[in-house]
Specification:
The structure holds two protein chains of two kinds. By secondary structure, chain A is mainly alpha-helical. In chain A, about 70% of the residues lie in helices and about 0% in strands. The radius of gyration of chain A is 16 Å and the shape is globular. Chain B is α+β, with helices and mostly antiparallel strands. The two termini of chain B are about 40 Å apart. Chain B has a five-stranded antiparallel β-sheet, with no helix packed on it. In chain B, strands 4-5-6-7 form a four-stranded antiparallel β-sheet, with no helix packed on it. The chains are: A mainly alpha, B alpha+beta. Chains A and B meet through helix 2, helix 4, helix 5 and helix 6 of A and helix 1 and helix 2 of B.
């Protein structure tokens, strides 16, 4: 039976998932430089790379795997916020990269995606606690913009520098 | 290699990026305009949306609405139990403020916040401490 994913691509996705998980765990160990525990989200660099190099289903696999594995390490409680925010962020990234990547840089795409990520977490928090937490939106938007530009830059330079024959992409 | 990869490689900055940054600037401006907090003298502590404690700064009195969750440690210190965890909310009556002096939540971010800056939020415990009427009603969602 022929597998949908070639062994090389499966290995590449596994490596990217592992890198995403490891960067999340390392970032989690370092005290947040921002208020409210907001972080850079280096793990999203690897999910965005999958969107750019491969496809949405494969990015979804990496995201879900990273979410489930991270829950095993830091607890399932964080999934309440991380899962919807990660999904929204992934959809925003995919739609923009798929439709507007000729006109938009990956840095701007990642900036908007990170802002959407933070505002989704805020929305979930407001719904769960039934609280008026919207005054935090400007702060979280600015943090998202900063983080998105930095991680977007990382994606840009990775795609530009890394040889295309790596990670099972040579036949595309 | 696919078209997306080639497009991403093209440039670090593209002119249409400005539209994205403009959208983000508008989001920041709108949220600043509509979501500014304002303090009105009565502090509320709620757990998962249910108010369990209020403190009136005008006459320095408190009201415990759920004795099973709130333990009064002193006139200005209240232990709020959430499942297996807890937060100790301390009132700074002189400065019309409140803060979390102790908590066993992961990260302990709530201990860095002050009610006067908007709300104290402990996401792991679902605790929110804010002035009654602080911040406008949600304008989004």
């Amino acid at each position: 039976m022929k597998s949908i994913l070639s062994p090389k691509r499966l290995a590449a996705l596994s490596v990217l998932t592992a890198l995403s998980l490891i960067s999340f765990l390392i970032e989690n160990l370092i005290p947040s430089p921002f208020f409210l525990g907001a972080r850079l989200g280096i793990a999203n660099v690897f999910v965005t790379l999958v969107v750019v190099w491969y496809s949405l289903p494969e990015a979804l696999i990496v995201l879900v795997a990273k979410l489930l594995l991270s829950a095993a390490f830091v607890g399932v409680g964080q999934l309440l916020y991380a899962a919807p925010a990660g999904l929204v962020s992934l959809v925003v990234t995919f739609v923009l990269v798929k439709t507007l990547s000729k006109s938009l840089s990956i840095v701007a795409v990642n900036a908007l995606s990170a802002v959407a990520h933070n505002l989704t977490q805020l929305l979930v928090f407001a719904l769960v606690t039934n609280s008026n937490a919207w005054y935090l939106a400007p702060y979280l938007t600015i943090v998202g913009l900063t983080a998105g530009v930095l991680t977007g830059s990382a994606v840009y330079f990775t795609v530009k520098i890394l040889p295309s024959k790596l990670l099972g992409r040579e036949k595309e | 290699m696919n078209d997306r990869t080639e497009n991403v490689k093209q440039a670090f900055f593209k002119p249409f990026d400005l539209i994205i940054y403009l959208i983000i600037a508008v989001v920041i401006a709108l949220s600043l305009a509509f979501a500014a907090p304002k303090n009105v003298g009565v502090l509320e502590a709620s757990v998962r949306g249910v108010v369990v404690l209020t403190y009136d700064f005008s006459n320095k009195t408190y009201s415990v609405l759920d004795g099973q969750i709130v333990t009064v440690l002193s006139d200005t210190e209240f232990r709020i139990s959430v499942g297996d965890g807890y937060n100790v909310v301390t009132i700074d009556a002189q400065n019309n403020d409140a803060y979390v002096s102790d908590s066993d939540c992961a990260g302990g971010e709530c201990k860095k916040m002050k009610a006067s800056l908007g709300s104290i939020i402990c996401a792991p415990h679902g605790l929110v401490v804010s002035f009654k009427g602080a911040s406008s009603e949600p304008k989004v969602g």
